[in-house]
Amino acid sequence: MLQSQLFSRTLHQDPKDEPSVNARLLSRAGYIDKLMAGVWTYLPLGWRVLSNINAIIREEMDHIGAVEMHMPALQPRELWEATNRWSGQEIMYQFQDHGGRDVGLAWTHEELVAEIAKRAIASYRDLPLAVYQIQSKFRDEPRAKAGLLRGREFFMKDLYSFHTTEEEQDAFYNSVRQAYRNIFTRCGVDAREVEASGGAFTDKFSHEYQVLTESGEDTIVYCPSCTFARNAEVAEGTEKCPNCGGALTRAKSIEVGNIFKLGKRFPEAYDLKYKDANGKDQYPLMASYGIGPGRLMGTIVEVFSDDKGIIWPREVAPALVHLIPVGAGGTVTMEARGLYERLHGAHITTLLDDRADASAGERFADADLLGLPYRVVVSEKTLKEKKYELKHRSGGEAQLVDFDTLISLIRS
Amino acid sequence: MLQSQLFSRTLHQDPKDEPSVNARLLSRAGYIDKLMAGVWTYLPLGWRVLSNINAIIREEMDHIGAVEMHMPALQPRELWEATNRWSGQEIMYQFQDHGGRDVGLAWTHEELVAEIAKRAIASYRDLPLAVYQIQSKFRDEPRAKAGLLRGREFFMKDLYSFHTTEEEQDAFYNSVRQAYRNIFTRCGVDAREVEASGGAFTDKFSHEYQVLTESGEDTIVYCPSCTFARNAEVAEGTEKCPNCGGALTRAKSIEVGNIFKLGKRFPEAYDLKYKDANGKDQYPLMASYGIGPGRLMGTIVEVFSDDKGIIWPREVAPALVHLIPVGAGGTVTMEARGLYERLHGAHITTLLDDRADASAGERFADADLLGLPYRVVVSEKTLKEKKYELKHRSGGEAQLVDFDTLISLIRS
């Protein structure tokens, strides 16, 4: 990847009306660009990060047997009237097409997936089934001033599952919990599984995945000694940990995922039925499971940054190495190009600072702002010693190393 | 891929109000599902085909140095007023958000990309630049009854390039022409490069890529002896081939791609300027290049089908092999599973018909309808001979072959 081709440059000013850390750093570094409140462009560098997150999500979803599909955003009023979610939905963009038909932009897909499931589900032998998508959703958010944390147009991974029995549903639900833990771990964040309200259709808890950070809009109550955690909304009166009896702590957090058991509400609304082993009609149980990949990207930045810029976790970084030539000489440029090719040959993703007109100071400052895990410098000085200067973005001293050591340190 | 997990079954009835071949076959086979006119779900099998097409497009775009990004669909009125494309645009969905702001859904992205380009372009040294995206667009189409050929919500690959000189632009324009030829060839279609109107801002031709088929809504005039082809809209009076003097033929066709030189219209509208080598402000030249991946998928089906179903070209097929166990015996089922794993090990994508309750006749009819390139049958009869039955979807007799021959025939 060449820095000259990223369709952006780093900025010194913050985006308008965007006080959040993720909005400021991602915009200044050239990952995203604001169009209006809650609506952002993913510039090439940001698209790379989001694609890395999406690739992790796809791997973990495929691993538990969920199959990917793609549902549209533009939906007719009638679809939403079946569940009484058309009227009074302030957050849904609703309008008429030129033929006078009422249509809206989907902010979730329980309605449509239950309707489509009628093509797939006829017998108990067809179940369980699980499908997911990663797709753009729309919400007319009144407050959309938190960068990627609260979007009006935003990416969502939504997974839906259909089951014959509670036991079957629980087994799949638990496999999703494991997949979610894997996703958040691979993305570098410590997401707590938190009990939350199950909504109007169950007296059980649903689960949210919450990342602790001062900038969060949620509050959770958790036990520092064990895994217990509960959304403050449903934790009233809980003073001691129900698991271990320890004292509980309150903290701000960002919700990066949630999982819901929905019962039979949606199947009933769309007459989605299957024949059980006795030939009798039954409604399947349904559950839904969400992760916002863009919000997750924003959360990572909220958690991993310092006063100089972003510090990307390894697996989501747009590239592992930021390669920086220092000095105007043709030899330095040529050697940097050569190293760029050798790193590519070693399958190490690299961003080469190939800008013609940047000073050494600008290059170093931009490297810190962009936040790739490793900075490698090629200069007259390093070339004289036939070495390269390697520095971790997360800290520590720069060190002079030869190519083989460079590769093995980056891979370790 | 397991047939039981495709979130669909084959249908005997056609979708409502959809006379086109692609809508009927893709819906009946379970690739897509209609929500309303021009709005479709890509079911897992259809999503696989579209992902294959998108992967080809990405490879060819990356190869010519274009960089991927992602722009939003939801856009403010002011952005479009700068180019006078807000008012009188019947095809644009326009509405107010709950804050009373006029917003619309983008049906193209020249406006936004020119605005964003100001982050990237300051000096002649920043050019040329080329960025693309594959993203959902929206058009309030009055006639949307042609399946994937004319959508109200549809995928678009749109590429935009920026240049200092005509010569530089021509060089990149020609590399895009080659990339487009590669994309269409790899997708199995014979797309003619056709001269078309360049629009209001140039007296030169733009280029369209048209696939000849009776179901097309366009008409082109072309020379059967050489490469000359022109859209009938701009071919009035052209009776003989300007290249070779031969007689011209008229034919119906589907436009699957187009490329436009846009001059300086958009840079001027957004005050997108760069300093030339003399330090003087200049507007860059801009060009845009589109391919509709969904429409391309529909076109492939319009061109490649017979009375039994679809016949996918190799590189876009959802899998290479449709593996069909025939006979109720546990041995057949087990052997089919074993072959499924061995094909996976040989990196041959396979759809296993693992349905419990389908007859041999249903399985064969569905295999023809789904249209994967190879059908492989495992039955008591083939097992007795320690062989498998292989048949091309495109024709020819079935043949009994051993595993090694099977692999080499499929790979050839």
Structure, explained:
2 copies of one chain form a homodimer. Helices cover 29% and strands 29% of the residues of chain A. Chain A is of the alpha+beta class and 412 residues long. Chain A folds into 2 domains: 3-306, Bira Bifunctional Protein, Domain 2 (BirA Bifunctional Protein, domain 2, 2-Layer Sandwich), CATH 3.30.930; 321-411, Rossmann fold (3-Layer(aba) Sandwich). In chain A, the strands form 6 sheets. In chain A, strands 3, 7, 8, 9, 10, 11, 12, 13 and 16 form a 9-stranded mixed sheet that branches. In chain A, α1 crosses α7, α2 (44-63) packs antiparallel against α5 and α2 crosses α7. The longest helix of chain A has 21 residues, at 166-186. Chain A is elongated. The relative contact order of chain A is 0.13. The mean pLDDT of chain A is 95. The interface between A and B is large, with 60 and 60 residues.
Q: Secondary-structure map with pairings?
A:
2 copies of one chain form a homodimer.
Chain A (H helix, E strand, L loop, with lengths): L20 H8 L3 E5 L2 E4 L1 H20 L3 E2 L5 E3 H5 L12 E3 L5 E4 L4 H7 L12 E10 L14 E11 L2 H21 L4 E7 L7 E8 L5 E5 L6 E3 L17 E15 L1 H5 L4 E2 L5 E2 L2 E7 L1 H11 L1 E2 L2 E2 L10 E6 L3 H16 L4 E3 L7 H11 L3 E6 H5 L3 E5 L6 E3 L1 H9 L1
Helix pairs in contact in A: 1-7, 2-5, 2-7
Question: Can you give keywords for this protein?
Answer:
homodimer; 412 residues; BirA Bifunctional Protein, domain 2; Rossmann fold; 2 domains; 11 helices
